[in-house]
Amino acid sequence: MLTTGRIANTYQIETPEGVAITYTTAGLASRSLAALIDYAILLLFLIIGFTTVGYSGGSGFGNQDLILALLALFAFVLNWGYYVFFELIWNGQTPGKRLLRLRVLREGGRPVDGAAVVVRNLMRAIDFLPLGYGIGLLTIFIDRHNRRLGDLTAGTVVVREGAPITLDQVLHPVKVAVPPRAPDAPPTPLLPNLERLLPEDMALVFDFLQRRGTLSADARAALAIQLAALIRQRLALPPSDGHPERFLEHVVREYDVFQAMMARQAG
After folding, report:
1. Relative orientation angle of helices 64-89 and 114-122, to the nearest 10 degrees
2. Are the C-beta atoms of residues 234 and 196 closer than 8 Å to each other?
3. Pick from 78, 74, 107, 75: which is nearest to 92 by CA?
4. Which of 155, 95, 145, 100 is nearest to 123 (CA)?
5. pLDDT by residue (tens digit) across 152-163?
């Protein structure tokens, strides 16, 4: 069963296999900027459509009432279809969300489906009330996962996407500064089973140690605990009440020793 939790602006999911996945929820500022980008694109489409229809009417083509009806229909379809179309073909992203690396997910981290996309966008009419997304802004402020009414109704959440990890980053992760080993430490690793660690595991450790200074205290502590537990499981180590960040720094030091030892044996 999937479970979720809330730490600062994070959305945490635990899969049935016990793997914890953490997303950063999109806040009011990023969502508003993405909405402005989408509104600008919508406005451009409307201007093109109005100009085309107006030119046709000015040229004496067709009935004026018919032209006005077609114009109203075009505006309606564009306003409602824009979000549904892009969120379906781009798996939860509009052009604005895509530019800001935001994505709509179902609760539990699942991709959005057609029903969720339609429901959350039909609710825009209510979110917009009484003016300028009044209800939508209020629910974003109140809800712990920064969801507007449409998200609550459809069971969706808007999250930030992390920067994509390249193959080079996986194979050659960036090193981080950690306190040095003790002078009398042996030339062999002080941790067992380091060969079980995948490059992706170490990339997560390096990324956390690099970004920990930018996280809130609660998010930093919770992520360190989760990551340390994951690494301990990989290394077949028992749970520990020790400081998780110190343990992760210890892993980095000993993994470097392990790699150096493997290089000597191979060379």
Report:
1. 130
2. yes
3. 107
4. 155
5. 999 999 998 866
Kindly indicate the confidence band of residue 165, based on its pLDDT and cuts at 50, 70 and 90.
low
User: Do 128 and 205 belong to one domain?
Assistant: no
Domain that holds residue 37: 10-160
Residue 146 DSSP code: -
SS3 readout for 108-136 = CCCECCHHHHHHHHHCHHHHCCCCCCHHH
The DSSP result for 228-246, as a single string, is: HHHHHHHTTPPP--S-HHH
Q: Which single residue is written with the structure tokens 């892993």? A: 251
Residue 5 in any domain: the answer is: no
Same domain, 185 and 125: no
Whether 254 and 214 share a structural domain: yes
Handedness of CA 100, 122, 50, 59 (dihedral sign): positive
Q: Give domain status of residue 49, yes or no.
A: yes
Place of tokens 């802004």: 137
Q: Which of 120, 136, 160 is the last residue of a domain?
A: 160
- Of the listed ranges 2-16, 32-46, 75-89, 186-200, the one predicted with least confidence: 2-16
Q: How confident is the model at residue 39 (pLDDT cuts 50, 70, 90)?
A: very high
- Are 70 and 155 part of one and the same domain? yes
From the CA atom positions of the chain, what is the Rg in Å?
25
Question: Tokens 């500022």 label which residue?
Answer: 29
Per the domain annotation, does 72 fall within a domain?
yes
Q: For all residues of the chain together, what is the average pLDDT?
A: 83
